[in-house]
Amino acid sequence: MFFDDKWLDIAARGSILTALALVWIVLLIRIVGLRSLSKMTNFDFVMTVALGSLLASASQVTEWGAYVQILVGVAMLFIVQVAAALLRRQSETIEAAIQNCPVYLMRDGVIDEEALAKTRVAHSDLIAKLREANVMHFDEVRAVVLEATGDVSVLHGKALDERLTQDVEEA
Question: Fewer CB within 10 Å: N-end or C-end of the chain?
């Protein structure tokens, strides 16, 4: 028979261990906060990918020791992320080491071709982001910023408060 006791054991173990690991992750997110899964920094992105990888590993373990090691690894990811966030707030040097700086891709209606090349953003991707932001004319665009998270912000209108772009770098 295809579904013997071995197959049922494997299916049950995978299901139960995955559910328990997921509950563990949700509990840690409730303790640490939703920022744990944000895209605010490179570190946050790596955290999200690593959590997914560890959750997948948890569903496939065959020994309790390995399972506990994965759960400890998940907890350590949260601890390191909280520590990194606290250090970033206290030190500009650590902030600069962990975080990319946002970059202008366009300013006052003029596309910065050098910035596009440096950041490897295609001209067509920039135009698509302008369309998504409902820009009708280039002269409406005050700034387009490639954020540290990889998102693209389009700031358009009659005027731009310079405080919104005080941390943005030229290419």
Answer: N
Tens-binned pLDDT, residue by residue, of the chain (171 aa): 455 677 777 788 888 889 999 999 999 988 887 777 766 677 778 888 899 999 999 988 888 899 999 999 999 999 998 898 889 889 888 887 877 789 999 999 999 999 999 999 999 999 999 999 999 999 999 999 998 888 899 999 888 888 998 888 887
Distances (CA, A) of 81 to 20, 22, 43, 170: 22, 18, 7, 29
Whether the CB-CB separation of 74 and 28 falls below 8 Å is answered with: yes
H or E stretch at 146? strand 141-146
Choose among 128, 107, 125: nearest CA to 117.
Answer: 125
DSSP state, residue 169: B
